[in-house]
Amino acid sequence: MMGIKKVLFATVMFVAVWDLVAQNPIVTHMYTADPTARVMNGKLYVFPSTDIVCEEGKGENGFCMPSYNVFSTEDMVTWEDHGKIIDQTEVPWGKKDGFGMWAPDCIEKDGVYYYYFPAPPTDKSAFRRVGVATASSPEGPYLLEDDYIKGVDGIDPNVFIDDDGKAYLYYGGGEHLRVAELNSDMKSIKGKGKVVKDLPSKYKEGSFVFKKDGLYYFTFPHNASGSEEIAYAVGKSPMGPFKYKGMIMERWKDGIWTNHHSIVEYKDQWYIFYHHHDISNDQHLRSMRVDSLFFDEKGMILEKKATLRGVGLTSIDKPIQIDRYSDAHKVKVSRIKGSTTVNWQLDYVENGAWVTYNAVDFGNVKPKTVTARVSSGLQGGTIRVIVGGEEVASIKVLNTGNWNTWKEIEVPLTKKIKGVQNVKLTFESNGAKYVANIDWIQFK
Ligand code: FUB
Asked: Tens of pLDDT along 103-116?
């Protein structure tokens, strides 16, 4: 799917800039979950948690989560990894081998970046306590507070600062989620946390609050049946009550129990960040994703279908990873066996299948050919390439030997293409059920 273009290792800093990609998942060199996205200094920063493969007996509930990295983008396409900002071994009050650094948040107030994270405390006073670390830049370095926030007991801290400067901490997981007003030091709460009222019953976690046009949106993963959907409620105060409005994103039905999100507006577009188990197919090794989000004229959130395509424009200067499609019919997706990078293919592509990939930026290059990297263990067939609604090429695929033997087939384009266009491929077989597997296409 993508390759690392530049990787610089230093003692304390790891920086990686990826080839232009705008697809899901957005990071493939490590597992990232629970993404909190924030706009800071004109950039979009994402603060996720980190999943790693668990050693026997480590972590909790199958999760092994030792540390936090921070990522940023300015174009929603190129992502930079600013490296590890906090490790469990550095938390003064936390277990050094707890592997329980669950969903974090970060927010700026008066030029200080406050990073909130849950961790298992050494004093065993709770399953999770919430710690704070501060920095003068979103990328750190972060200075950890000596102790956790007193009176806060629970996972998934989220902070919202209202227009009047008052800050609120939301936290917890279970039948009830909680809210407390933060003191102006942003490191302690006023009184006791209160239950957020009027939310639907059953398991909830991962509160994320934002305000739009005077309305407060209380959004949360909700396990209404079997795995978590992303749901929301709205209210007129950051403390609630909130009126339940329904689902933003439906629950996963392919073996992953959690989802965890954040919602942010960046450069006049709203986005939802969330996670799935794209790379690993293991619900404890998750990868963060992003899709665009829309509201209706009354401010209600339109339900979002998770996509592989993600967001942003895809430039034609590299192969287009068609397996990260916008929409598809009669195809499956799998990792390519033996690939040294994280790389997917479309497979089980049936006669009559189609796949769309939106927002390809052809610029003014006016490409002359299109190449497809394909394999077929049967008779092959024809792949028609349709750009902006018009057929621009037809690619004949024959048997390549087997489904793991790849061939690049280049054909001329019959039309001039420029600007931003949606691309569609249709598949017709030479008689067999399956046409061809396809890794990528490239316009040149
Ligand atoms: O990542 C560990 C936990 O899983 C998070 O804290 C929850 O929100 C769920 O995503």
From this structure: 999 999 999 999 99
Known catalytic residue at 198: no
Distance (Å, whole) CA 61 – CA 43: 34
Give residue 259 CA to ligand 1 midpoint distance, Å: 8
Q: Is residue 400 part of a domain?
A: yes
Cβ(316)–Cβ(363) under 8 Å? yes
Candidate of 54, 60, 155, 227 to mutate for ligand 1, largest count of ligand atoms within 8 Å of Cβ = 155
Q: Is residue 152 part of a domain?
A: yes
What's the whole-model pTM score?
Answer: 0.94
Looking at the DSSP bridge assignments, the partners of residue 246 are 232
Residue 419's domain is classified under what CATH number?
2.60.120.260
Per residue in 129-144, pLDDT (tens digit) is: 999 999 999 999 999 9
Does one domain contain both 246 and 330? no
- Where residue 153 sits, what CATH number does that domain have? 2.115.10.20
What are 31's strand-pairing partners?
51
Tokens (6 digits) for 116: 């909130």
Gap from CA of 257 to ligand 1 centroid (Å): 10
**Domain co-membership, 197 together with 97:** yes
